[in-house]
Design brief:
The chain is α/β, with parallel strands linked by helices and 399 residues long. Helices cover 46% and strands 15% of the residues. It is globular, with a radius of gyration of 20 Å. The structure holds NADPH dihydro-nicotinamide-adenine-dinucleotide phosphate (NDP) and magnesium ion. Magnesium ion binds next to helix 7.
Amino acid sequence: MVAPLVVTILGSTGSIGQNTLDVIARHPARFAVHALTAHSRMDLLAKQAFDVKAAVVAIPSQATAERFKTAWADAPNRPVILVGAQALVEVARDPASQAIMAAIVGAAGLPSALAAAQAGKRVLLANKEALVAAGSIFMATVRESGAELLPIDSEHNAIFQCLPQHERASAPQGPAAGVRRLILTASGGPFRNQRWADLSKVTPEQACAHPNWSMGKKISVDSATMLNKGLEVIEAHHLFAMPAEKISVVIHPQSVVHSMVEYEDGSVIAQLGQPDMRTPIAYGLGFPERISSGVGMLDLALAGRLDFSQPDLKQLPCLALSFQALKAGQGACVALNAANEVAVAAFLERRLAYTQISQVIEDTLSWQAGQSTRQLESLGDIIALDEQARSAARRASAI
Ligand code: NDP
Ligand code: MG
């Protein structure tokens, strides 16, 4: 019998984390779980750790450790509890696991995702912000360590599947031969076809009500503003070593075509499926084999039609700002991501109007453009700029 693949899930209590555990539970002989991590949902973490017999959990503080212990109650064989941000890096590096699902939200997930890459593991990367903030460092690390990088973001997973097998390198040095462009699909979110200026009264509940996907709050807001698609363009640029001008975005409200690769001969290869993250997660866990994910059949006759249209960048300022940041370079991408995290958190706490999100990003990008050029060669350089950009974003919006 083949030994099970041992997996650690960073951010197991989130939407991606829970979907990952769902897929793993379908294959008890094929996968085992070593460590789980969470930030606030200790009851859920305790239940997950019990169910999968996790050996280790990583949580943010001593106070949460007490909550975890209470939630675990008197169950036998309590896992080892590691505490603090550095614990995330430790579990990511720990040789006890071979594969890491990087599913923490935001730049907070960067150090641990990078540690998994440094350790040469199979990295299932959902945390797109890690690539936006530190794409060059991340990809260079994957190349040096020989890590196996598998994109979990549905568009990038689709592109990965549509590339020729021999071109699916974990960290390519240049664009795949014969590829004319990558086409990322975007649902357009809940406010598709509405003018940006008319959205000032949008509430967090409305922004988080995505028509097709069920996701965490931050990425749901990003999908509504389409900053998410901007982050994904930057993510695709790094993952597939593709210049910005060869990446395009098309609105596709049904979220059935997850993305496409267009070749020089005019062929366009697409990956289709139901909008359910268990498909890309199962692809990453089982690679190169295909394993069941719990996702049902795609009934195209039921879908009836698939629509496509051009995004109007004038009505999508967050997407336009993302293209601007990618053109400007790594420092601008760090600022874009940091400003967006600050703005979205404030919006979710009802301290910032929805339409102010783009303004905070724009002001922070202007701040960054006015800074003297600096080296961004290490994780420390990125984190220092990220922190300054967050302060600039808070000043810009008085939040
Ligand atoms: P969720 O908000 O649902 O989950 C985030 C996870 O990260 C939770 O386990 C949370 O813990 C943990 N977490 C939050 N903040 C911190 C922190 N500061 N330090 C350590 N852990 C933290 O997000 P999603 O699962 O939706 O998204 C996760 C990542 O995957 C994001 O980068 C997102 O862009 C990406 N992604 C998500 C998709 C989706 O369908 N959801 C699709 C494609 C990409 P707790 O819950 O205990 O607070
Ligand atoms: Mg996506």
